[in-house]
Amino acid sequence: MEGVTSAAGKEAAAPVTAGKTMNVLVAIDDSDESFNALQWLLDKILKRTTVTTEEEDYNSIGKNNGTDDESVLRIIHVMEPFPHYVFPGVHAVFPTTSIIQSVNKAQEDNASAILAHAVRMCAERMVKAKTSVLEGDPKEMICDVAEQMHVDLIVMGSRGLGKIKRAFIGSVSDYVIHHAKCPVLVVKPPTETNSLT
């Protein structure tokens, strides 16, 4: 599949067919790469005829266990917690409550805008989508939520980090490929020869 990398040793995703339930998890952030991955999924794999959006919270995840009559796309956005201290030089600095509240509000607004854009993309393709905003380390949360939701496939965008950057800061997609308990599809950014069309 052009522009797509799947986890080694795991089966590639098959197109959705009528009567078959397939639960797909897309981890999305504000990057072009994650929206490219969602668009690729909508164009190449998921082709449905109904639109439903439903917000879930982390406590309700997994209660459905993928028993819907039709395939469902689950879109999550993971907010990293705001650090409550910084170490400039030798002394620790603790932000005020109002600063923490402002940052949290900005993160929530950003998450809402990201998911609204993703839901619009799904609605254009008549694809059922459920959204969730979670807080924690994105790498770990994606794997944990995928296991709880019993998803069949995780789809992510690749930021194309260089080898040195990946060695120092790690890659969310690399982590998920090695730790998820289901197949993982990593969609590479489009290039002139590798476009969405």
Structural notes for this entry:
- By secondary structure, the chain is an alpha/beta fold.
- The protein has one domain: HUPs (Rossmann fold, 3-Layer(aba) Sandwich).
- It contains five helices and seven strands.
- It has helices at 32-44, 97-124, 138-149, 163-169, 172-179; strands at 4-6, 23-27, 53-56, 72-79, 129-135, 153-157, 184-187.
- The protein has a seven-stranded mixed β-sheet, sandwiched between helices.
- Strand 4 (72-79), helix 2 (97-124) and strand 5 form a beta-alpha-beta unit.
- Helix 3 (138-149) packs parallel to helix 5 (172-179).
- It is globular.
Short description:
The chain is an alpha/beta fold and 197 residues long. It has helices at residues 32-44, 97-124, 138-149, 163-169, 172-179, and strands spanning 4-6, 23-27, 53-56, 72-79, 129-135, 153-157, 184-187.
